Amino acid sequence: MTTRFRIELVRLDTTEGPVEYRFPSDLTVLAGPTGVGKTTLLELVKFGFGLNGTLAPVAVESIEAVTLDVRIGNERLRLVRSLDKRKRATVRVTDLIIQERLPDHSTNIDGEHALNSLLMRALGFRDDLRASSERSMKQGSRITFGDLLTYLYISQRQMNHDIAHSQENYRTVKRRTVFELFFGLIDDEILDLQAEVNSLKEQIQKAQERHRTVVDFLCDSGTQQRLDAERALEAAQAAQANAEQRLAQLRDVLDPVADSETRALRDLLTDTERGAAELAAAAADISRRQDRYATERRRVRSDLDRLHRMREANLLLADIEFSVCPRCMQSLRERDVSADLCRVCLQPDPVTRFTAADGDEPYEARQLREQLDEMAGQLEALAEQKSLVEQTAADKDRLIAVLNAQIEQRTAQRVSPRLQAFSDAAQIAAAARSDQSRWEAVLQQWDTVADLALHAENLDSARARLQSRIDIAQQSLEARRTEVIDGLSEEFAATVRAIGIPGVSTASIHPTKYLPVINGDVFSKDTQLGGGLTTATQIAYWCSLIAVAMRTPGADYPMFLLVDSPRLALNEDTKLSPAMYRRLTTLAGTVPGRLQVIIADNELPSGYRATYAEIDFDYDNPTVATIAHPGPNAVPTIEGE
Questions:
Q1: Is residue 166 part of a domain?
Q2: Are 155 and 240 within one domain?
Q3: CA-CA distances (angstroms) from residue 500 to 384, 488, 536?
Q4: How many separate domains does the chain show?
Q5: 136 and 263 in one domain?
Q6: Is residue 549 domain-shared with residue 608, that is, in the same domain?
Q7: pLDDT category, 525, cuts 50, 70, 90?
């Protein structure tokens, strides 16, 4: 069932008094020549919904607040938004059904009382839905009321350019998702599942990258496979066992011919050699850790240098000012522009100018510098630890030399050959123990590799299960998709024929892009028809969407259309204008009270004036009637800018 959406009143509180416009009719035309403020009024409506409107100078200078009385779904709300830059971030909201003031709502989409959430819920949609692409690894951007409004408000800028910002590729996923939500071709479960699938894709990629990093490290360490490390560990264990067995045999031979002091010296020598081997292994491990920290430090320093170069580029380029428009090459020097606005597009200037004296570096740079400082501390601690280990190892080596000398002196004449064999066996045992510790550490790394591979496999299995659920859910909607797209194509072709757009032989709706297909070409900047023919195609498209939504069960399309200047690109003698108004009039009258259409236009076809409400404007009676109009030659229009 389609959703009711009506604007009942627009009130402008100006410095010279209030101006009110009511819209009780299903079809209302705001008529008047260019420059009387029709687009200004429509952009103020958009602004009143908490979005960024293109505000004319008369609005900025003379209008204090805009008030909208709207009926959305089962809600009747009054929205009051100030144009003061310090106050416009909040909107005063009143429930007109119970006549109760609600908490002020923020224009920010996040927060406890966000106007976006209020409007989305009124339209029957959750405020946390995300538009996710199947080819992406991101959860996607949140769908906002502003995204829905692109299907309800066709501005003059869009009328002869594109459909719902279809030329802006970064909006494509949202545009398609909003279309599918309006016609019931997707549901909340599919959107949530797709966002979760994309999140899992990102986690899988990170797990696979970590897996490759560890495997590359192990390959660089000389073990191409886990089996190599296991064999090396077994060899070290066997060498240690053989050496200890040899030591035991030599002790049995030496004990009868060695006195108790010599045996004590030999025991001390064995313990010392064992400690020296362990210290050597510890020193090697510290060196490997130092190498890893040094590599990571070089990477972080490279990132920090890149940020500094970006910041320096910003300092060099931020002060560049255009003296002529880069599009039309008109001079910009005579334009009176506020210091906080961009001279070219008149939008708030987002450039933050940093200087060397600011002393405030970006958050990412601070994070990288803190990482560098932390790694420097780690390297310093490792250096101290390595120095202590090396000093202890040197002490051990000196003690071994002293013990060997003492034992040699005591047994030179009796057991020197056997003692040499004992020393050789002890060294072999110590080396085997050191190798064993090293290969055990390598095997732990291979265990990590197995864990990472299993984690990535589990994530991929979870992703596959979710994708299967998505496929099943989409298959259940496939019949509805076919029915809706076929209905839209038939309606669009019939509307194009009824309007009589010249040069169009075939017309349909693309089954996945949801855009008009004219003569076999999808609507785009390269395939658009010239001038007013594009405008007529736009009107045919929006009329078709509303007509099909009206008769499609389960459609959540808001029954509202706000159109700015459809006749601006049409020639006065063309037959397209009456045909377009005839189609709009028929559409609005299909079910009285169900659809609201508001059109701002210049000259109107006289034959249809009796079928709709009309509010006339001129330079003596502009849309902001309390402020005197300076005349057509003294006001730059929003369209012109």
A1: yes
A2: no
A3: 86, 18, 9
A4: 2
A5: no
A6: yes
A7: low
Which candidate, 489, 488, 487, places its Cα nearest to that of 520?
489
- Is there a contact between 445 and 217 (Cβ–Cβ < 8 Å)? yes
- Identify the CA nearest to 519 among candidates 532, 505, 530: 505
In this prediction, residue 307 carries a pLDDT of 80
Strand order in the sheet with 613-616: 153-154, 560-564, 596-601, 27-31, 613-616
Within a domain: 581: yes
pLDDT tens column, 382-434? 888 888 988 988 888 888 888 888 877 776 655 556 656 767 777 787 887 78
Same domain, yes or no: 37 and 145: yes
DSSP 114: B
Longest Cα separation, the chain:
132
Place of tokens 């505000």: 55
Looking at the structure, tell me whether residues 263 and 388 fall in a common domain. yes
- Same domain for 417 and 517, yes or no, is no
Q: Is the separation of the CB atoms in 52 and 89 below 8 Å?
A: no
Is 398 contained in some domain?
A: yes
Mode of pairing for the β-strands spanning 27-31 and 596-601: parallel
Whether residue 296 is found in the same domain as residue 419: yes
For residue 396, what are the domain limits? 224-439
Phi, psi of 427 (to 5 degrees): -65, -40
pTM over 0.90: no
pLDDT tens, residue by residue, 322-342: 778 888 888 877 777 777 788
Please give the Cα distance from 362 to 365 (Å, whole number): 5
Other C-beta atoms within 10 Å of 99: how many? 9
Query: Rounded to whole angstroms, how far apart are CA atoms 37 and 543?
Result: 26
Averaged pLDDT of the chain: 82
Amino acid at 621: N
Residues 75 and 172 placed together within one structural domain of the fold = yes
